[in-house]
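Every protein is a chain of amino acids, and every chain bends into a shape of its own. The fold becomes a row of whole numbers, each drawn from a learned catalogue of backbone shapes. The protein below has been through that process, and both of its lines are reproduced in full.
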Amino acid sequence: MVHVVVDSADAWHDHAVRVLAGGDFAPARVAPPKIEPYGAKVTYVWDPSGVLLHFAEPLEPRAESRPDESGSG
């Protein structure tokens, strides 16, 4: 399994659908985006060898991008 943080799970779903539509990567498959309880919208893609890829869009701002709540910076 590979977990990749992305800006848009919907965009990755659309991209995977377009790529897989040609049939060159059978038996790869893609599932529609799903909101997971841990706070991300995830598009799941199974590559031709069966490796599961998670394209995960965080639904909450990431901790490193939030201002310090103590007011000190």
